[in-house]
Amino acid sequence: MTRPVDRRALLHAALGTAAVAVLGGALTADASRQLPGPSGVLRVATGEPTAFYAAFGRLLAAELEAAYPRLSCRVRTTAGSVTNIELLRDRRADLALVLTDTALAAQGTDLFPHPVPLRALGRVYETYLQFVVRADSPVRAVSDLAGHTVSLGATGSGAAELGERILHAAGLSPGTDVPVSHLPLADAADAVRTGSVDALLVAGGVPLPTLSDLDDRVGLRFLPLAGLLPRLRGRDGLAGSGLEEVSLPQGAYRSAGGVGTIGVSNLLVCRPDLPRGVADALTRLLVLRASALVPGNAVGTQFLDVGSLIGTGGIALHPGAVAAYRSLHG
């Protein structure tokens, strides 16, 4: 639920937007040698270059390198959640920020027929699904999109997979009733501006700078999504899907305030074989350096407190994360 408070006051346990892979040797905690935390080279896989994930990833990398001088982090931009899980699966990443819904899908669905073992370091924040059309569009609900071209997010993003499910929930068949493209956010916004695409879907903080700019230039209408939530949850019967009804904050965009949409929780996940000492060190950073991990465009993102951080639904916490939380908070 959206709470009318300063989001920066809710940063007690924020982390996110990271997928990390070891280069040139194993990552080690070196606790037995009493060295200052983990060492090695980490690739931090994030999201699209202009979106929230990448901004968060750059801050995360800076904080990790400052806290652990023997650790080197290389930020990598990606399409988003699905790609990041594939990086974990292929051992080209050790950590990934993903939508909770996508992480659950990785346990064995059509999206991931071969389950990808995952462990969570925390439920780190909540973003909003934002489905927009131009303000002068006749479209006022998802069900009105028949015959209209939509961009459902870049291929490999969690929003792209959720977007197709949203269309199905509204009684529309992607590719048949609704022409679908999968454009990066910046390209999709340009396409809406020029009229070659009628609607776009993105998951992110509120306001997103790209959407704010588009709203200033052509005006936007935000389609209500909350009424479709029961059908989205019903696909798997998962109460812990990380999807919940929220309202867009007043003042976030020119006319979006109060529109009912869907909040999507985000997990920082890893493979089960991430060294326990590394998971412990990273989890401590989440809690103790949360206020330094806030991108400047994250005004509307819901950062979650420690109680919510451990609420990772169907994805079990890594033992190293459990140890860190117990040590810090009992």
Structure description:
With 330 residues, the chain is of the alpha+beta class. The protein has two domains: 183 residues, Periplasmic binding protein-like II (D-Maltodextrin-Binding Protein, domain 2, 3-Layer(aba) Sandwich), CATH 3.40.190; 137 residues, Periplasmic binding protein-like II (D-Maltodextrin-Binding Protein, domain 2). 29% of the residues lie in helices and 22% in strands. It contains ten helices and twelve strands. Strands 4, 5, 6, 7, 8, 9, 10, 11 and 12 form a nine-stranded mixed β-sheet that branches. Strand 6, helix 4 and strand 7 form a beta-alpha-beta unit. The two termini are 27 Å apart.
What distinguishing features does this structure have?
single chain, D-Maltodextrin-Binding Protein, domain 2, 9-stranded mixed sheet, 10 helices, 330 residues, 29% helix, 2 domains, alpha+beta
